[in-house]
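It is worth pausing here to work through a concrete case rather than discussing structure prediction in the abstract. The textbook approach is simple: state the sequence, then state the predicted structure, then interpret. We follow exactly that order.
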Amino acid sequence: MKKVLSIVLAAVMVCSMAFAMSACGGNTGTSSSSQDSASSENVKTVASVDDLEGAKIGVQLGTTGDIYASDYEEKGSTIERFSKGADAVLALSQGKVDCVIIDNEPAKAFVAANKGLKILDEPFAEEEYAICVAKNNDQLTKDINKALKELKDDGTVQKIIDNYIGDDTKGKSPYETPEGTDTSKGELHMATNAFFEPYEYYEGDKIVGIDAMMAQAICDKLGYKLVIDDMEFDAIITAVQSGKADFGMAGMTVTDERLEAINFTDSYTTATQVIIVKE
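Step two, the predicted structure:
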């Protein structure tokens, strides 16, 4: 009798375990398949600007890409904002966003460093970069414009750009402060976000790039020592407004919205906003 009861109890336990696994979704193969299907349904292929509507778009907070992409929110797009462009690109690699809108030159660096990504041939927008200065500091704006004109006229601006952009010219024309340069006027603080290669980025513990070298050349012309303060991009205008920094230079585009809060110098280069997607 004990033997019979043992057999019956064992059978009941097996049936109970089978029921529990079924009720809890014990068939992991089916569950995984459903999750993969649901995940793929959330991915939108972006092959052109026309595909941005309804897409998940990654941008760097406060940048021109952020400003332009915001127009798509009312068209059903979701804008994911990151403090650094690299974080937006990482999110794209992980499938958390469908594309990233960012400046063409940093985009090239990101794509080169991340396999499986590409830049769409169709540009998203064209823009001009300038230096931001506080509205109550007209004299500094005039001084920077004067220095910029001289640097453009003698070819220094183009040499600095060529030193960072172009396969045939990279590294061939680095800017160096002329011997005997007088910096007795004191310091000029430049606010930037040093994660925007080739405009500003770190080499070891030093900030280099087009903007950094351009700022150095301007300060040399004006008789100041350059001090570069690295901060979040969306903090730059506030830093300049408050006097924490004298000017801001970070691949910054002149927009009507920004002109309400800050002044801009003449443009020093033209750039293009592009779209990064998975291959």
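Step three, interpretation. Residues 1-40 have pLDDT under 50 and may be disordered. The first strand starts at residue 56 and ends at 60.
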